Amino acid sequence: MPGIVAPMRNTVERLDKPSSYAMSKYKKRKRNDTHTDTTRPASPDLEEKLADATTLYVGNLSFYTTEEQIHALFAKCGELKRLVMGLDRFTKTPCGFCFVEYYTHQDALDCLKYVGGTKLDERIIRCDLDEGFGEGRQYGRGKSGGQVRDEYREEFDPGRGGYGKRFREDQEGFADEYAGGA
């Protein structure tokens, strides 16, 4: 029909949107939050927390990337307040993520814009705004102590320590079965 104009859709994704991990965690928390205590103030919405967030979650790092390399790259967008490397819960070695905290929200947004999606140690890194670092979050969530995704990886990735842990265990189990049946 002439005269009817469809609304314009924004084709550019917001840089300051919550990460998929943060959203799933927030939704799960909301679902499980069944308290009826009206004296306790309502917790702020995730979008409100991220509106002035100064912390970034940085993922897909090589296990061999150093704090110095991360600091050199991320300091290009503003003064860093602190840098917390993600560690394997058991071995206390880097496991592919970190938290970068800036002094201002604008510096964090600039970092999302200019550093997110770039290469560091031959890996494309992922940056997301984070609600803030809390003690204990520096450890991997996987059963092996590292990252969950690394446990299920089936391809060889030298930057992440080779094959995934579960894949290696399955292959070793298959080899043992095969050798035992011969």
Automatic annotation (TrEMBL):
Q: Where is this region: Disordered?
A: 26-45, 138-167
List locations, semicolon-separated.
Nucleus
Keywords noted in UniProt: mRNA processing, mRNA splicing, Nucleus, RNA-binding
Record's GO cellular component terms: nuclear cap binding complex; nucleus
Please give the biological process terms from Gene Ontology that the record holds.
Answer: mRNA cis splicing, via spliceosome
According to the UniProt entry, which residue ranges have a biased composition of type Basic and acidic residues?
148-158
Primary site of residence: nucleus
GO function terms (MF aspect): RNA cap binding
Pfam families to which the protein is assigned, alphabetical: RRM_1
Task: Give every RRM domain span.
Answer: 54-132
Task: Give the UniProt family note.
Answer: Belongs to the RRM NCBP2 family.
Q: What is this protein called?
A: Nuclear cap-binding protein subunit 2
User: What gene does the UniProt entry assign to this protein?
Assistant: NCBP2
